[in-house]
Amino acid sequence: MTVPLPQYLLLGAILFTIGAVGFIARRNAIVIFMCVELMLNAVNLSFIAVSRSLGEPAGQVFVFLVMTVAAAEAAVGLAIILQVYRLRGTINADEIKLMKW
Amino acid sequence: MTSQPTNWLWLIPFLPLLGAAINGLIGPKMSKGLVGLIACSSIFMSFLVTLSYVLFRLPLMEENQVLLNTAYTWLSIGNFHADIAFHLDHLSAVMCMVVSGVGFLIHVYSIGYMGHDPGYSRYFTYLNLFAGAMLILVLGANLPLMFVGWEGVGLCSYLLIGFWFEDNEKASAGKKAFIVNRIGDFGFILGLFSVYYFLGKVDFLGMVHEVEGSGRDTLLKGWFDLGSFGIPSVVTVICLLFFLGATGKSAQLPLYVWLPDAMAGPTPVSALIHAATMVTAGVYMVARLSFLFSLSETASFVVALVGALTALYAATIAITQNDIKKILAYSTISQLGYMFMGVGVMAYSAGIFHLMTHAFFKALLFLCSGAVIHGLGGEQDIRKMGGLIKKMPITGWTWVIGWLAICGIPPFAGFFSKDEILWMAYSHGYRALWLIGFLGALLTAFYMTRCTILTFFGESRLAEGVHAHDAPRSMAAPLVILAVLSLIGGLVGWPHHSLFEHYLGGVFESSEAIVAAIPKPGMPAEGMLMILSICVAAFGILVGYFSYLKRPDLPGKTADAIPQVYRASLNKYYVDEIYNATVVQPILKTSDRFLWRIFDVWIVDGIVNGVAGLFRSVFAEGLRRFQSGIVNSYAVYFLLGALLVLIFMMLP
């Protein structure tokens, strides 16, 4: 039994929304970070589903690209969070108001 | 004016410039002897090159022919052409000989005079740079290049007047010279533009060609296209603009005020720049542009009138000055006035002749005064000198030759040249100018005698502990050479058989036809005027002799009898104070009260701050609220932005 395309896309949309809401609403920097990953993977899922449905491999190539970027981003992002924690003793996004007028 | 064989004229200004470059770049690291050697040999080589051209090349050419050397295409825009080109004819040959010859002697003299100065290599750099710029001025084949030299010598003059810039007064004297000269340069530049506008050429040969051909009618038209009576012609306006430049550079009324202050520089500089060469650039320019000046009787008359008035005016100030260099400075202004009188009455070769002899005897007098100042350890006040001829015989006796030359006693150089100018003024119909010049000659003889007696003769009034000594050999040798030149230099201009006038004949060919057409009134014998000149010079000397050697109480009594006149002359007719009150202070006040406090603060700053403030209040005050520093709110904007893009893309 094959799952039809709309269901994949629906799952992707749900995952993306969860990620987006978490990205906006949560305060813990690591959770925010995980939400970003969630959004990325929601998009990846949609890419693959559409790619298979159309028989077009280009979408899957994009997914590899996104995963690479996500990996690099995780490395840089986690390092920043680690340093912020060492410096300020917190990873609460509300308390790290460095970029402010 | 045929095609030119190759030549090496560019070497003449290049050599001193090379010397300046060497001394300027590595001079401080070299020994003083080497610096002096480079400076002197570079100018001497340029003298030799000039000499070789004068002796071997010029005689082979036709009289009105010109040796042209185009080194480099400089400016070529549309139909405006100006090259780095050098132009040697008999006029620039005379100037070159004077500049490089007298310049060399003064370089040699400077080795002794500046020997103990910490700025030794800097001094010689400037001096060489000056020589190079002056030679460019003299040799430049077009007006723009001449202007480069003109500004170059002005720069060097500024640098050398303010050579001891630690002294605020000396630095200001340099600034004054520079700023006053700017006023004149403004005239020069406007003249240059006008020449290009009306003739379309800026090189001298091309200009002569235009003036002799189609350009002549353009020049003689009225400046405004109204054709009515009383409007100066184009050529008159152009000439007056150039003459404005000349009054600045050559220290004539009303722009002469910088020259007396320029005496703040080292004395050899006063001799070279402010007596022998740079200040004569204006006279040279008028002579070089004689083909224009001779077309305008009005402009020429203005030149002659200003010259004659300056000659008399400066002489009346020189009478009462007590600083030996100030006396010579006013004397220089006065003598320059004679030169302008000469070229103004269209006796161009007479003006240049006086320029040459003046370069000899005034450089001599200045160098002697330098030797005196050097020997007395910096004393410049002639009231504290006296009887020096016994202590410094070489300086004293060479000064005496210079003194007789400037007074106009035959057979010394000044007699022939000054008399030639006076005679030309008289015979060309300017009798009032002749009278002014004649009175000036009387005063010249008097004040120079006063200066001579107070410095070298009579009782010694030296301060305690001053041990006068004569000049060292490197300073004495130039004095002797210049003394010989002052003694015999005038003989080349023997009246009626003037080799000098004949030599320059070809250069002034285009103006000579006009001069010849001037109606000459019936004249008494030239000899009468000559005898009169000698008499007046002798009279001036005798008056000076009696009042300063025989009856030393007389001058004081005279001064007490007419105190207002005496004080006016002593204070230079308060011209500096008048200029200060009428020009300098208003500019300062306007700048301070209006331009700064109102225009700059309110208008200029107001516009800048106003525009910035407007953007701040209108946009920035609202936009800054978005930048909260809270990452989550940034994320919301981010998302909203992404949604916006999405919606936009999904719109039909």
Quick structural gist:
By secondary structure, chain A is mainly alpha-helical.
Structure write-up:
The complex is a heterodimer of chains A (101) and B (652). With 101 residues, chain A is mainly alpha-helical. Chain A has a single domain, classed as Helix Hairpins. The N and C termini of chain A lie far apart (57 Å). With 652 residues, chain B is mainly alpha-helical. In chain B, 51% of the residues are buried. The chains are: A mainly alpha (101), B mainly alpha (652). At the A-B interface, helix 1 of A face helix 28 of B.
Contiguous low-pLDDT stretches of chain A (5 residues minimum) are none
Largest interface between protein chains, with number of residues from each side: A-B, 16 and 10 residues
Termini Cα gap of chain B = 82 Å
Tell me about the biggest sheet of chain A? none
Strand tally of chain A: 0
> Radius of gyration of chain A, rounded?
17 Å
Largest sheet of chain B: 2 strands, antiparallel
Contiguous runs where pLDDT drops below 50 for at least 5 residues of chain B = none
Approximately what portion of the residues of chain A adopt beta-strand conformation? under 5%
The percentage helix of chain A is over 70%
- As for the CATH topology of chain A, it is Helix Hairpins
Essential attributes:
heterodimer; A: mainly alpha; Helix Hairpins; 0% strand; B: 652 residues; mainly alpha; two-stranded antiparallel sheet; 3% strand
